[in-house]
């Protein structure tokens, strides 16, 4: 199956920076009509302006997706503005990099709220409109939900416990959606990037004190992940691990789980020895 998004209304969350910002540009080049949302009004307006300057149709809708009222208003405003909703891309998220023992309930709840509860409740609101898109669409058209999770949703990473918990839950819900939404004619797709280079690391991380080495500067570029998301949407790929490291963990869990477990434990011990030498 090949999904043509020309003229289709695509709602992208987390669109003010990073993966979401790159997605806006790539989808615009394919002729999609874009509804962009994030918390930052100024950043969103800038992204929407760039998309319009390239000749595409775009509107921005500032919203805090952890707020039920904002979610409801967002969906209502998008449908009122465009008259339909054909694709939802859940791309917004936060991360906490640090050991569970030094974390807090507040951090755990914040990560779960942004990475799990917000996207699934937004999906709940969008589902009737996506179903309507299928019912009104031409033969062969299938609307879609694209959930941008993380390889952390397939394997727990040390010093990222809250992030992994939220992404595991998001992955499980995606799989459940896939079965349920089939009767609505809506495809549910899963994208699993690895560590992604952030436009602003301090805004992306709730804390940055992990006890393993992660090369944030050498992480996957947002463009690479955005390419993978668009490719999954167009080709209707049920699940895609994006980037070599993500694919290696994804494949290794299935074929060599003990090896992956040893590798993760070794990263913790190497960091501990490095800290001991430094002190």
Topology of helices and strands:
Blueprint: E1 9-13, H1 18-29, E2 33-37, H2 41-53, E3 58-60, H3 68-82, E4 87-90, E5 95-97, H4 105-136, E6 144-148, H5 161-181, E7 187-193, H6 201-204, E8 205-208, H7 222-235, E9 239-242, H8 244-255, H9 257-278
Parallel strand pairs: 1-2, 1-4, 2-3, 4-6, 5-8, 6-7, 7-9
Helix pairs in contact: 1-2, 1-7, 3-4, 4-5, 8-9
Condensed summary:
The protein is an alpha/beta fold and 279 residues long. It is built from nine helices and nine strands.
Written overview of the protein:
- The structure is a single chain.
- With 279 residues, this protein is α/β, with parallel strands linked by helices.
- The chain has one domain (9-278): Rossmann fold (3-Layer(aba) Sandwich), CATH 3.40.50.
- It contains nine helices and nine strands.
- A seven-stranded parallel beta sheet has the order 3-2-1-4-6-7-9, with helices on both faces. A two-stranded parallel ribbon has the order 5-8.
- The mean pLDDT is 89.
Major β-sheet profile? 7 strands, parallel
The count of β-strands is 9
Proportion of beta-strand residues: 5-15%
Q: What is the residue-averaged pLDDT? A: 89
What strand order characterises the main sheet?
3-2-1-4-6-7-9
Number of helices: 9
Looking at the chains present, what oligomeric state does this protein adopt? Answer: single chain
Q: What integer value in Å does the Rg equal?
A: 19 Å
Write the CATH architecture name. Answer: 3-Layer(aba) Sandwich
Element order: H for helix, E for strand: EHEHEHEEHEHEHEHEHH
